[in-house]
Amino acid sequence: MMIKSNKENPVSTIRYRAMSLLARREHSFLELSQKLNERFPENIELVREIVVALNNQNLQSDKRFSEMLVATRIRRGYGPIRIQVELKQRGVKIDLIDLALIESEADWFQLAKVAMKKKYGLAACDQFDDVVKLKNFLKYRGFKPDHIAACFN
Questions:
Q1: Is residue 110 scored above 50 in pLDDT?
Q2: CB under 8 Å to 98, separation ≥6 — which residues?
């Protein structure tokens, strides 16, 4: 469905676009603002006002967004460092990031083991090169050094 641009009332057009984006999935404040600014570059101030209003009405929430992103990244086998970096890039404040990671109650040690087994199987790795490859994989996935070390004990 094509959205008609309403030149006389850009507020309703921008709000409709914002609501349609939020209906598909949660967006961070920054992410939603950027998408709307790309679509409506002539109304940047108006976009900000609308996104602030949506946030005040709890239709846009960085807390919900961070909870959603943490849950999906955990299901995909990512660690806390990578999740934290991704949330920071999307403009979520560090206190909300920390809260979402704590509330997830994830067992990062177990998740690191599961990610390693899923990627490389159960074969024992005796070769130094294999161990380095596994550790680099887990580091890339965003697991902390103590999570990685626990996989090899």
A1: yes
A2: none
Residue 22: CA atoms inside 13 Å, Cβ hemisphere, count? 24
The answer to whether residues 32 and 18 touch, using CB atoms and an 8 Å cutoff, is yes
Of the candidates 36, 89, 38, the residue with the CA atom closest to the CA atom of residue 65: 89
Chain-wide mean pLDDT for the chain? 91
Tokens linked to 60 = 């846009």
**pTM for this one?**
0.85
HEC profile of 17-77: HHHHHHHHCCCCHHHHHHHHHHHCHHHHHHHHHHHHHHHHCCCCCHHHHHHHHHHHHHHCC
